[in-house]
Amino acid sequence: MAPYLFVRKKLVIVKETRLTALGPLRRGKVRDVYTLRDGRLLLVATDRISAFDVVMADPIPDKGKILNQISAYWFERSRDLTPNHLISIDIRDFPNECQAYADILQGRSMLAHHARPLPIECIVRGYLAGSGWQEYQEHNSVCGQKLPSGLKESERLPEPIFTPSTKAELGRHDENITFTAVINLIGETLAQRVRDLSLAIYRRAHTEAEAKGILIADTKFEFGLIGDRLVLIDEVLTPDSSRFWPLTDYTPGRSQKSFDKQYLRDYLLGLGWNKQPPPPPLPPEVIANTRQRYLEALRLLTGRGIS
């Protein structure tokens, strides 16, 4: 499927051959990654949106720009805790081969160092929600980690917990793994480092976001290696990689409104869709409401709109 990009408020379908001058392409569910001639990466955040591991047929206007700019914001805010792969999101800093596509790339792409990704997803949970809440009701645990009795849905945990998972192939589901399994995959020293960094970044981001009206219920980080140096990669603390709740509406004991794509998931669940391709079409109001939630997250966090 060709990626959809919204450029200057007009829907443009970018054919797979359109950007081939930029180098080899690796396509994810919502982002395209090019390896440039000098070995650096160009990450392009499209307006595709996925739910239940299925990419919707309808894009969300400006979503890629919003995610790209939120990620850049958090990369900068966490740089003193850990280095990251971001070089620039300013098209003027990009290599010459990118300049022909400036209209497409502006605002929705980042130039990054090439890193070898670690084979795990570093998930931090600060609240009882989603699959964690489902497991807790049955076993008083989340991802096998025992928690106090009597917690409510959406309640803040006594301390954030690190619940790693595998990094699944496109179209497959990630699977929760134990910290021992992480050690077996990447070694004890590196496992402890990514766990401690994940918790530290989450705590800082939660404190800052809460002061701005957003509760970050949980999030996913990815790390990689440049030589022997550990760096934060991929996207950081976006509405796609995190669960964002409005602080003004937060009430434990029920599910929460959100700035993320939970709104879209709830709509799809209401249809009785079987979570298998092809996805159902999205009505204009669902597209508009989803876009508005992403925009509000950007505005609250950064104090800015789309640039």
From TrEMBL:
It catalyses: 5-amino-1-(5-phospho-D-ribosyl)imidazole-4-carboxylate + L-aspartate + ATP = (2S)-2-[5-amino-1-(5-phospho-beta-D-ribosyl)imidazole-4-carboxamido]succinate + ADP + phosphate + 2 H(+). The keyword Ligase applies. One of its GO terms (biological process) is 'de novo' IMP biosynthetic process. Residues 25-277 form the SAICAR synthetase/ADE2 N-terminal domain. It is an enzyme of class 6 (ligase). One of its GO terms (cellular component) is cytoplasm. It holds the Pfam family SAICAR_synt. GO terms for molecular function: ATP binding; phosphoribosylaminoimidazolesuccinocarboxamide synthase activity. Gene3D superfamilies: ATP-grasp fold, B domain (3.30.470.20), Phosphorylase Kinase, domain 1 (3.30.200.20). InterPro entries: SAICAR_synt/ADE2_N, SAICAR_synth, SAICAR_synthetase_CS. Pathway: Purine metabolism; IMP biosynthesis via de novo pathway; 5-amino-1-(5-phospho-D-ribosyl)imidazole-4-carboxamide from 5-amino-1-(5-phospho-D-ribosyl)imidazole-4-carboxylate: step 1/2. PROSITE patterns: SAICAR_SYNTHETASE_1 (PS01057), SAICAR_SYNTHETASE_2 (PS01058). Keywords: ATP-binding, Ligase, Nucleotide-binding, Purine biosynthesis. Its EC number is 6.3.2.6. Belongs to the SAICAR synthetase family. NCBIfam families: PRK13961.1, purC. PANTHER family: PHOSPHORIBOSYLAMINOIMIDAZOLE-SUCCINOCARBOXAMIDE SYNTHASE. This is Phosphoribosylaminoimidazole-succinocarboxamide synthase. It comes from Desulfobacca acetoxidans (strain ATCC 700848 / DSM 11109 / ASRB2). The gene is purC.
